[in-house]
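Pipeline run #58 for the internal structure catalog. This entry was flagged by the ingest filter as a single-chain record with no existing model, so it goes straight to prediction. Upstream metadata was stripped on purpose; only the residue string is passed forward. Reviewer on rotation: M.T. Logging verbosity set to normal.
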Amino acid sequence: MRKINILQIINSIEHGGTEIQLLYLLRNINRQKYNVMVCALGSGTLEKDFRETNVPVKVIKSNFHYDITLIFRLVRFMQHHKIDIVHTYLSLADIFGRFAAKIAGVPIIISGCRSANTQQKKISMYLMRIANKFTDIVISNSNAGKEFVINTQKLKANKISVVYNGIDFEKYSKTINIDAKKREIGIESNNFVVGTVARLDPLKGVNYFLEAASKVAQSIPNIVFIVVGEGPQRLKLEELSRRLGIVSKTIFTGYRKDVAELAQIFDVSVLSSVVEGMPNAIIESMALGKPVVASNVGGVPEIVKNGQNGILVPPGDVESLANAIIRLLLDKRLAYHLSQEAKQYVEKCYPIDLMVKKVENVYDALIASKIRGVHMSDIIRNNGVCKQ
């Protein structure tokens, strides 16, 4: 029996949560059954990592945002490589990739929903609704994403499968010398450290993290705030830290390859997003046994159970965010209890092999449905998510 040719299409191979999840899938998918290729609509900092998976990677760059020539270039690629399954991620790749797959006559079309983003452009939502008519299934990484697709794209629940993200626990089980790591980035050993790991764009709400930081610093002077990540808002956020009077207490690290080590120096890990799907950053912090404060948005409450394994706050509520951070810094017993519960939960529910197995289940069931007529609801019923 020949291998199934699968094409993964993604906006870019810049560092981000979706890109990391795709990398995990590429590294662990069954190469005996599947012949996998990647098309990216832009290059990025993870290009080397993608190529090291020994999966063919084709970068097809757009000339402008809605460059429809991308569709026809993708069609040629699909037809040349006799693609059996197209799996798309993120808005532009999701739209163009699915239309290209339809034109190319690809038998199986899968869309990946990665966030419950209510701020998407109307034209994007309209095109997604059209594409849904010829899409076999949507794989969402959260129940919130599933509900978002049902409510905004008018898709039936039996065409959506929820597959939670996977985490490389081996990477997050390595211990380091905390004081040495603090010295490396210029932090004194007796200072508290509160950190956030995020792409610096408006949806991640890092401005709220900084505003809360200025309030926390008034109560706890021996403290440093770390912003790990890069993005278009960096200069604005650095200027905000100056206006808030916390520039001497704030470190913007930019893009880092050693996030798993850097996050180990956090006393509290914060996610202040206003839009989210299933955020890797908070799962990774929980895997490290760090107490977390996170916005109650998107798929976050599926991970963080308020008062059980972390603290949830309303998105954009600076006062609540600051109070939660202060509470965890001062109440070490509470911080320890929440962090241990969090670690146990993510180790149970977010292993990479479980994520890969569930994605492969969807692929296999769709292949079978084209041959043996297996009902699509069987895919949903047999691919349930982890319960706490």
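catalog note: The domain at 178-349 is CATH 3.40.50.2000 (Rossmann fold).
catalog note: The CA atoms of residues 173 and 325 lie 24 Å apart.
status: ready for reviewer M.T.
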